[in-house]
Amino acid sequence: MPELPEVEVTRITLADRLNGGRVTAARLGKPLRWPLGCPPERLHGLRIGAMSRRGKYLWLPLQGADDAGGLLMHLGMSGSLNLADAPPPAGLHDHFELVTDRGTLRLTDPRRFGAIVWSDAIDVAPAAQLLARLGPEPFDPALTPAAFHRSLRARRTTIKAALLSGELIVGAGNIYVSEALFRAGIDPRARCDKISRPRSEKLLAALRQTLAQAISLGGSTLRDFRDAHGMSGAFQEQALVYGREGQPCGHCGGPIRRIVQGQRSTFFCPHCQRR
DNA sequence: AATGGCGCCTGAACGC
DNA sequence: TGCGTTCAGGCGCCAT
């Protein structure tokens, strides 16, 4: 499932190849989470800028002769972006296509929880609204251990739910939250506001280390995710707890447990992770 | 105000 | 074998 590492890997494998290109056509398939917000013809002739990332969103700036804007893109749960010179005919799950002089950019998304939305700028509606509630970027130096601990103390829910909300730190979804909590030795059921300062510092480091490792491994491919070259990720093979219910913990050898928190699976080691 | 839960959507896995 | 059910989860939205 695309979380921050998968989105960043997509950006890395896409940005340089598209930057400076020109849009020659755009096509829509089945509806995505939200409408595009402009006729696809609106994109014709626009010059492509440097793709950036905010949380799990990508922003593709598009410059016209006398106007500008861009596309805010989200991969949802099953989306991936592919750029190819001569792509195969569009398939059942290809729902957006941007034909450019650098190749054809295509969003493939079986479940259609993804989105591509036109916005006149990243800091005006609708992009600004969609990004408004996002917490700090995990690798932002301004996110200090002290600031992170302060934000934890303000939440009365479990640490799992708090991290998943994306309001304390963006980018970690169900896989990487389970992995980071294991690496930090923190029980996912622990009350967010009861995490001590030293443990919160360890958690922040674990989140950063887990996300960075996942980016370097090309993300996780559980089923659908591919980078813009069509390559799958390898982090899932390094996962210590996610998807490993009943298997022995790599630290203590005890069985890894699966519980459900907020309708979502959490994997953890009850022995190594403490409240 | 903060928090928990729902529903969107499809394909794979599972059970009888 | 085949059909129905359950599960996966990012995230806006709604209810409490």
Terminal-residue CA separation? 27 Å
Rg (CA only) = 20 Å
- Looking at the overall shape, the CATH architecture of the largest domain is Alpha-Beta Barrel
Regions with little confidence, pLDDT below 50 for 5+ residues = none
CATH topology-level fold name of the largest domain:
N-terminal domain of MutM-like DNA repair proteins
Per CATH, the superfamily of the largest domain is MutM-like, N-terminal
Question: How would a crystallographer describe the biggest sheet?
Answer: 5 strands, antiparallel
**Class by alpha and beta content:** alpha+beta
Assigned CATH class of the largest domain = Alpha Beta
In total, the number of strands is: 11
| Number of self-contained structural domains | 2
| Mean of residue pLDDT values | 91
Helix percentage: 10-25%
Give me the secondary-structure topology:
Layout: H1 4-12, H2 15-18, E1 23-28, E2 47-48, E3 52-54, E4 57-63, E5 68-74, E6 80-84, E7 94-100, E8 103-108, E9 115-119, H3 127-131, H4 145-153, H5 159-164, H6 174-184, H7 197-216, E10 257-261, E11 264-268
Antiparallel strand pairs: 1-7, 2-4, 3-4, 4-5, 5-9, 6-8, 7-8, 10-11
This protein binds a DNA duplex (16 and 16 nucleotides) through loops.
